[in-house]
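Q: what does this look like with nicotinamide-adenine-dinucleotide bound?
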Amino acid sequence: MKTLSIQGRESRSEIHVGESLDRLADYIPADRRVVIITDSVVRDLYGKRFLHADVIAIGTGEQAKTLVTLDHIFEQLIEMEADRSVFIVGVGGGIVCDIAGFAASVYLRGVDFGYVSTTLLAQVDASVGGKTGVNFGGYKNMVGVFSQPRFVICDIALLATLPGEEVSCGFAEIVKHAIIADVGMFVFLEQNSSKALALEGSVIESLVYDSVTIKAGVVERDEKEKGERRILNFGHTFGHAIEKTAGLRHGEAVSLGMVIAAALSVERGLLRREDEARIVALLEKLRLPVRIAVDKDAVLDAMLKDKKRQGGSIKFVLTNGLGRATVQDVTFSEIEEIVRGLD
Ligand SMILES: NC(=O)c1ccc[n+]([C@@H]2O[C@H](COP(=O)([O-])OP(=O)(O)OC[C@H]3O[C@@H](n4cnc5c(N)ncnc54)[C@H](O)[C@@H]3O)[C@@H](O)[C@H]2O)c1
Ligand SMILES: [Zn+2]
């Protein structure tokens, strides 16, 4: 097991990579009452291994990530007579973590919380960085707060039950971290892609740890996304537009978004063609899509509505060589040219 910590502005968060769900109790002061928030799938798979505690199980999918679910959580917390001494633990994927963190951050004006992240995406991305919240009015993550969990446990063994396509979605964010910040990790991925896909413990542990290190570093320098944190959106500007219009999973859309961002980086003379080819090859090895037929008008329309839009251009994360990222203004006409040119 390896531990690293993030110093947020208001509190500190410890992330334990390779720790087990079975040792959760070690991370909570003995005199605290614990309430676990999980989803129905994770409860059915792992509920028997939860420490002795009250459990609130929510539904699954983005449709469960709403204020209605939050309402339901507060009702149950009140029914349980949970007071300020309660310690809330979200045990699940990114959806559970985002909701549990938000619920804990506003219940009684904020109580302590931690996560046991059970999906690869939650381990390498969602549970790190202190963003919590829910969807609202059809918009993703519209309502929420920045708030750091006391601890995050990344139990690699729990990933064994994760459906393959969910594993691949986690890999998309791992590849993103390597491209924007760590060429050594990129090479490691190239050399170990089959072991990674087979969820070999030591390989996954190393990838999760490196991902968390990168994300934690960026977040520590820019907790509230005023500047540098933007580089974590590599592949996400196109990715979000594709996710919305093509109905793909987030990680799949991000994979396509990274392919496009790499092409744009080459076009601007920032990235070598052979490195662009390495990015595409790696994504393919990790069973992520690298080309699809998209509805070009719909994608452009979604891009124009992007919240990172400023005037006649969009702030775009590009890579200026494997392991490095840069944020540049890209005009709509350049974007249109790229989208129209997609085959
Ligand atoms: N807060 C952040 O910084 C941040 C960053 C990235 C993503 N997110 C959010 O994370 C969410 C996506 O997270 P996700 O991909 O983990 O999805 P998820 O939480 O929906 O989990 C995916 C599915 O896997 C199931 N599952 C969870 N653990 C399992 C296990 N060990 N074995 C078998 N099945 C398991 C879940 O029940 C669910 O059906 C999105 O809502 C996104 O907005 C947040
Ligand atoms: Zn993402």
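The radius of gyration is 20 Å. The chain has a mean pLDDT of 94.
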